[in-house]
Inverse folding.
């Protein structure tokens, strides 16, 4: 099943944050709020296998959201190559030519629809916001609250999904604070040794 392999390769715990970052970057030229635009598609739509001349479009409903081949690692490229070969052999591919001259290959949908975990999406978006706001000395909590409100106003999420995302964010903050405390303690003892 192609959707499951896309999920395992690009939306696993190890790869999801980087994947979401590239997806958001890919639509930043096309919409005024790429974070919310991405979340609207990713939270509503199942994964699909669409390859274009530039990369993988993991959501058939919006092919502007793309993970460019240049940002993929060798393992991801190999998975795509194997999937393409298998789907071609089983005659489960549809070729499409577009008016702008682009070309895409789509897998015919089969079996159960696979969605990316909503809590993981919200958590990764929060991490990306945290990185950006920290670099620019902006209040992270306020920006996160605004983005989360905009997302939850446009996509129906279960209370449990929102709570799970909140717990992931809190765990990350606790882990960061612990690492900072350890770093400060180590630096203090080193400073004492120098004195």
């Amino acid at each position: 099943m192609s959707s499951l392999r896309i999920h395992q390769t690009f939306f696993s715990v190890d790869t999801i944050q980087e994947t979401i970052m590239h997806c958001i970057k890919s639509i930043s030229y096309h919409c005024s709020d790429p974070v919310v635009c991405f979340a609207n598609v990713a939270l509503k739509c199942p994964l699909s296998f669409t390859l274009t001349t530039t990369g993988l479009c993991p959501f058939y409903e919006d092919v502007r959201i793309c993970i460019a081949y240049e940002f993929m690692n060798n393992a991801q490229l190999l998975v795509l190559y194997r999937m393409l070969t298998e789907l071609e052999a089983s005659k489960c591919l549809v070729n499409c030519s577009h008016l702008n001259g682009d070309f895409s290959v789509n897998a015919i949908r089969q079996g159960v629809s696979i969605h990316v975990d909503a809590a993981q999406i919200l958590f990764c978006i929060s991490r990306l916001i945290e990185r950006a706001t920290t670099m620019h000395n902006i209040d992270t909590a306020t920006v996160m609250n605004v983005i989360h409100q905009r997302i939850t106003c446009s996509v129906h999420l279960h209370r449990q999904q929102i709570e799970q995302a909140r717990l992931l964010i809190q765990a990350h903050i606790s882990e960061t604070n612990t690492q900072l405390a350890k770093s400060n303690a180590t630096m203090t003892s080193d400073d004492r040794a120098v004195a």
Observations:
- The first strand starts at residue 50 and ends at 52.
- The mean pLDDT is 85.
